[in-house]
Design goal:
The complex is a heterodimer of chains A (294) and B (369). Chain A has 294 residues and is of the alpha/beta class. Chain A has helices spanning 4-7, 47-63, 78-87, 105-123, 143-151, 207-215, 266-280, 282-293, and strands spanning 12-17, 20-22, 28-29, 36-37, 43-45, 65-72, 91-95, 128-132, 154-166, 171-178, 181-188, 191-195, 219-221, 241-247, 257-258. Chain A has a nine-stranded mixed sheet, with helices on both faces. By secondary structure, chain B is an alpha/beta fold. Chain B contains ten helices and 18 strands. The radius of gyration of chain B is 23 Å and the shape is globular. The chains are: A alpha/beta (294), B alpha/beta (369).
Chain lengths: 294, 369
Amino acid sequence: MTNMRSELKRLMHIVVCIKQVPDSAQIRVHPVTNTIMRQGVPTIINPYDLFALEEALKVRDYHGGEVTVLTMGPPMAEDALRKALTYGADRAVLLTDRHFAGSDTLATSFALSQAIAQIGKSFGTPDIVFTGKQTIDGDTAQVGPGIAKRLNLVQLTYVAKIASIDFSARKITVERRSEGGTQVLESKLPCLITMLEGTAAIRRGSLEDALRAARSEIVKWNAAEAGIEDMTKCGLRGSPTVVKRVFAPTPRAEKAAQIDTTEKTVRDVADELVTSIFTHQPALEHELSSSRSA
Amino acid sequence: MGTQKSKASPPAGGRADTKQKLPERFRDYRHVWVFLELERGQVHPVSFELLGEGRRLADQLGVQLAGVILGPPGDSTQHAVSEAFAYDADLVYLVEKPLLTDYRNEPFTKALTDLVNNYKPEILLLGATTLGRDLAGSVATTLLTGLTADCTGLDVDADGSLAATRPTFGGSLLCTIYTLNCRPQMATVRPRVMRMPQRSNKPIGRVIRHDLRMLEDEIVTKVVDFLSDGQSENANLAYADVVVAGGLGLGAVENLQLLKNLAQTIGGDYGCSRPLVQKGWLAADRQIGQTGKTIRPRLYIAAGISGAVQHRVGVEGADLIVAINTDPNAPIFDFANVGVVADAISFLPALTDVFIKRLAPRNPMRLLN
């Protein structure tokens, strides 16, 4: 049963979880020590999260309400939040505390879910929590489901499209990407949505939003301020997984056999390559021929 | 032939530098489980790949391999049970309920969590598909245990812990991750990362049925429709026998046609490296690499792709890798089998022409003469 007393008047509140990540195109590995050279690597909002933010802003623009962006990270993650405000988010919350260092996906989803509960108490209970499909630095796609489970929200992952929201009836219909097709799911608010990439063009923020973003006060919470009492659930201590080794892939013993191209026409080189392919894979010539004639 | 998997040397014990022992309450967690993904009547091939991997881990540990099947009563679920044994499971845990017909997070999470709490496996493997990732995250959070996503290598170390290796930092390095003090140790693996094992005619063995105490009314989410990809052109890239892919070396979006022409000529599928998806030249489901699709074709031709580690881990299961790149020092030549230093834009049409000529159906009249 929905709570008629408050639902009719209340505006929609949407929380978007974002992450500041190193721009992976610029990451370099030290050739000798095989460690990541972080210095000078610019950071960006995780590109997948932009689609979540865009969808949240679209829903807000249509139904009315507010969008709060949330990130957990070092103090410099404030930059990512300010950037999100320039797109038009209404409020930004930075969750930052040394106790969060070394969090794996379970500890991260714990901290974020606590912060979302605190956002609910401070600024209104969220109706939808959005995350990106995954991050480009971790690529796990687990934090979204982790938050949903901890907050007991309906979990809608890989959403390609929000078909409709009936806010007063607390109903939502989405298209969810699955193996071999798209599921059309009818569900209820509150829910957590992980948004697929490429679902919308990312808006350009207005000048007004840019000015507002520059002036905005970012809400900054440490663990205690986010309502976290049990520090053993945070950071390294709260992470069941342990990274034991980081290493570079073993190079292959031999390099590719190069087809000599000197003083040959492109056609001759191509001919030589095809011969080489069929020498390596004799069965392939016959199979490709029969698939061609078929 | 085949390329080497970038695999770690045998891992030292995960507990080597810790004095902690596995907490008492987890000591009776034993055996290796593989979740068989049954969607719309079909078992996803990644489930068989995982049974192959699970068999190896179970043998190393000296324990049993179990398949876990959640589905509606009926033939397709029964078929999945027999396939689990055909791919060498020792036993199957089965939950059969009409409300498990279509995948939904709520009933599947409850069914799998209940099974784990009742029968206590030490290792639980799932495919890193949209279904597997949706389910694994919920189950691991409910059980408060560790989950390592998108592993490219699984091993058992000297202490009997699961050593799960996966790419990290956008795929430039690999790392080995342990779940030392919780059970089960959970991991997901993407389709095609592991080799497809041999199927046998092993008969159906021990099946343990478990009830799911849940009513349809308790489930918030309803599946109201399913729009199948059907014969959509991009359905089978991961399982194609021949794949050609392009990278930034293609220069311009129009040149994708050169790639498609070659793919069509040799009856293969086509894909691309990550930058082309980021540029919007091709859809994300064409991306090959760690964050895209992993492929294991018999022939892979990479045109104008430099070969970053994140791409490499997605293709090194190919039997034969051919690389075309203008830069003789491109990393792709470090793991390709055959290389050509050439401009993909001029080379691809020539290669297509040669294939057309060489693969022309034999003219039976000519044989008579």
